[in-house]
Amino acid sequence: MSSQRAWTLLVCTLLVLLPFGLSDFWIFIAIEVLAFALYALSFNLLLGFGGMLSFGHAAFFGVGAYSAAIFFKRSGLDVVWMFTLAPLVAMAVSATAAAVIGYFSVRRSGIYFSMLTFAFQMLLYTVALKASGLTGGDDGITGLKPPGVLGQPLGYYFYALCWCLPSVYLLRRLVLSPFGLTLRALKDDPLRVQYVGVHVRRHQWAAFVISAGFAGLGGALFAFSSGNVFPSWLNWTASATPVVMAVLGGVQSFYGAIVGAAVYVVLEVMISGKTEYWPLAMGIIIVLLVLLMPTGLVGRFKRAER
Hints:
Shape: globular
Order of helices and strands: HHHHHHEHHHHEHHHH
Structural class: mainly alpha
Largest sheet: 2 strands, antiparallel
Strand content: under 5%
Helix content: over 70%
């Protein structure tokens, strides 16, 4: 067995055993880490591997959450079909929204791409606020807690894990595929790649849509865990979260976004319980970490190994 497979098996085993040593509160936090790890990982597909800095990635996290919530409230399906299809619906709706937004956004690069994604996010945020008949407006959509076994922290943890592990595997395969290698080449020198016959915008558009689909899945998992969805999930401030997570873990590493998400969520929980000024404390800690470890936590670990 290769070392890569051995590490993968070890991590999967630890994730399966993890909730049995935690209280219900910390199992809920572990679920949040899973959802946000998927969210950060999907964002890093754009930034770390595609060189596209999106200021509107929260749009797809929020669209996925709202799609799953509306499906939950209005479909009338039984529990098994509901929780089998809801994440897929979230992925499909988020990817569809990204297909439209990305069609226009990838025609620009650099800061213009970033600002276009930001503008579309604020448009969707306004829709979430104003379409109260569908989204609940300012009040959002509440009462999303799953019934039965899935309503228990342990049961929902394994449900979320069953969605997250295959998603991480698929994204990993994508990054290592010819498509992923082409995407990385586009990040370094798009003009040269275009000269060898690659359709630059089409590749970027595909990456944008795939990234949004997995962000939507993360939003759906978090919506059912927290039991509600609010318009603030689509606000511009929410898009800072995956950026910080990816940079904290290391944008050059595939697993960096996952590590960054875990550290960010756990730090937030621990500090917010100690002081009302926790955003300030979080900001100082993150700034120090980024200054001391510019390649991220995973990048620092790899350098130490050498």
